[in-house]
Amino acid sequence: MTTGPGKYDDITTHVRRVTKANVAMVIILEGNRGSGFSVQSYGETNVRALVNILRSCADQIEEDI
């Protein structure tokens, strides 16, 4: 995971605040700023949970295609 704000960090901040989440991730493909992603997390435990969620999502996407 990269450090510092990305091109969609402002959108991720908005999502995190509106949902009152400890972790938020936004993935954009071919958006108005190009493709990219932004992750905001508080604490290492949350990052480990995010890794598990992303692996599960990838498995489900592969099954669907």
Give the topology, please.
Blueprint: H1 9-19, E1 23-31, E2 34-41, H2 44-64
Antiparallel strand pairs: 1-2
Overall structural domain count: 1
**Average residue pLDDT:** 89
How far apart the termini lie comes to: 26 Å
Helix content: 40-55%
Low-pLDDT segments: none
Structural class category: alpha+beta
The shape is globular
Major sheet size, sense and barrel closure: 2 strands, antiparallel
Q: Evaluate the radius of gyration.
A: 13 Å
SSE series:
HEEH
Question: If strands are numbered along the chain, what order do they take across the biggest sheet?
Answer: 1-2
Q: What's this model, at a glance?
A:
By secondary structure, this protein is α+β, with helices and mostly antiparallel strands. The chain has one domain (9-64).
Description:
Helices cover 49% and strands 26% of the residues. A two-stranded antiparallel ribbon has the order 1-2. It has one domain. It contains two helices and two strands. The model has no long low-confidence stretch (mean pLDDT 89). It has 65 residues and is α+β, with helices and mostly antiparallel strands.
